[in-house]
Amino acid sequence: ARATSRNTWQLHNEQIRRQTQRRLEIECGLRGALDRDEFSLVYQPQVSLDGWQPPGIEALIRWHWPAGPCHPAEFIPIAEDSGEIMRLGEWVISEACRQAVAWHAAGLEFGRIAVNVSGVQLRDRGFADRVVALCQRAGWPPSRLELELTESALILDSENLRQCFQVFERHGIQLAVDDFGTGFSNLHYLNRFPVKRLKIDRGFVADMLRDTNASEVTQAIIHLGHALGMRVVAEGVETHEEQAQLAAWGCDEVQGYVHTRPLPPREMAQWLRMAQE
Ligand code: C2E
Ligand code: CA
Ligand code: CA
Ligand code: CA
Predict the structure, then answer these.
(1) Where does the EAL domain lie (predicted)?
(2) Among 53, 148, 178, 244, which residue has the fewest nearby CB atoms (within 10 Å)?
């Protein structure tokens, strides 16, 4: 028994060593990656279910790391810890706005462009003013920019956060709560901040047709959002069955593979062109 537990312990140690190594490599790789042009954005439409309205578009970051594939779910938390997220996050906003201006100039119809913003960015002093300045520099109206924030970013209530939201409101910058339902603890912030949209987390959508709990949570989020005068978006919608069920429950918008995977700019433009024909 002792030998077995020693082996387990060694295995565990080896695993930790490897994870630490990977983390360090990513942290190192992220440094200077912006200057080496290693990032790009892909785009995914948010399609309305209540009659035809031009879709919203979410921008998602991709890292073309020479060392190998690395997904945002892996490198974003590391960029948050190292502080790299500050420059990266501002690049995402200006690149998304620049692309939106170009599509708009090409006559493509869409509503807002949405970007993901991490709590670390939000807590940085002057963030809101910089977002407005980035929009203005790109020539994109702030009222057609949406910031997707997670619950954890909104729960920490500070004076700085309140000031941020005042600036957003003054300029019409829209706010969405991302991954809604995964942090379900204190919903106080929904009353305090001008949230326009709730995004139902992909996990609930994936299970809702076969799991009663996921189904109940999904419906409860739709009701809650509507009761508070918000629009509700389901993310990770993969099938027509899922979309039909969400439509029957009154969900306002869907995003997911049922329409398209996130696309590079040129293909996104084609998708928009097809959608408006
Ligand atoms: P998220 O904001 O919740 O984005 C949804 C994720 O689900 C994306 O993964 C998207 O590619 C994926 N997805 C979309 N439709 C479907 C579907 O039908 N089925 C399945 N299985 N997946 C679908 P992605 O692009 O790997 O991004 C992962 C997370 O990384 C995002 O989750 C977001 O939290 C974060 N992220 C991505 N880009 C940025 C960024 O520019 N800044 C920040 N701070 N975070 C970002
Ligand atoms: Ca998002
Ligand atoms: Ca999500
Ligand atoms: Ca997320």
Answers:
(1) 23-276
(2) 244
